[in-house]
Amino acid sequence: MKQEFYTLGAFEYVADVQVIKAKLESEGIAVFLRDENTLSTDPLISSAIGGVKLQVYTTDKEKATAIYNQIRSYAVDAEGHPVVCPNCKAARSEVYYSRKGLLYKLFPFLEPRKYLCLNCQMITRP
């Protein structure tokens, strides 16, 4: 039987994902960290490969997503306040990079920061 994976999220550094991984495993969910070893040896290439990906089996997707949404941290502005979506007024946004265009694919750190609302999926700029 072929197992499919679902990516819950991507994190810039390996240390950022360890608490979430431990919580999911304590709930009996198998967790896989794609690109973990690559970033452990060279953390400077994180933005080039899209960070470390937190993956679970698709059969555990709903349970893992519910747990992840309870403990995840959302985007904050420069003053430490949660980023609020102008469309639905939810404070559930995360940093979003589209990496469209050759320049941003080659130099992803040059792309302006945007936020993706996890409630209504609207993409906004600060």
Number of strands: 6
The proportion of residues in beta strands is 15-25%
**Helix vs. strand class:** alpha+beta
The gross shape turns out to be globular
Query: Stretches where pLDDT falls below 50 for ≥5 residues?
Result: none
Q: What is the mean predicted local confidence, pLDDT?
A: 85
Rounded Rg: 16 Å
* Name of the level-1 CATH class of the largest domain: Alpha Beta
Question: How is the largest sheet built, in terms of strand order?
Answer: 1-3-2
Task: Determine the CATH topology of the largest domain.
Answer: Alpha-Beta Plaits
Question: How do the SSEs run, as a string of H and E?
Answer: EHEHHEHEHEE
Distance between the termini: 45 Å
Quick structural gist:
The chain is α+β, with helices and mostly antiparallel strands and 126 residues long. The chain is built from five helices and six strands. The longest helix is centred in the N-terminal third of the chain and has 13 residues, at 14-26.
Note the topology:
Blueprint: E1 5-11, H1 14-26, E2 31-34, H2 36-41, H3 46-49, E3 52-57, H4 61-71, E4 93-96, H5 102-106, E5 114-117, E6 123-124
Antiparallel strand pairs: 1-3, 2-3, 4-5, 5-6
Written account of the structure:
With 126 residues, the chain is an alpha+beta fold. The protein folds into two domains: 5-71, 2-Layer Sandwich (Alpha-Beta Plaits), CATH 3.30.70; 74-126, no CATH class. The chain is 31% helix and 21% strand. It is built from five helices and six strands; from the N terminus they run E-H-E-H-H-E-H-E-H-E-E. The protein has helices spanning 14-26, 36-41, 46-49, 61-71, 102-106; strands at 5-11, 31-34, 52-57, 93-96, 114-117, 123-124. The strands form two sheets. A three-stranded antiparallel β-sheet has the order 1-3-2. Strands 4-5-6 form a three-stranded antiparallel β-sheet, with no helix packed on it. Strand 5 and strand 6 (123-124) form a beta hairpin. The chain is globular and about 40 Å long. The termini are far apart.
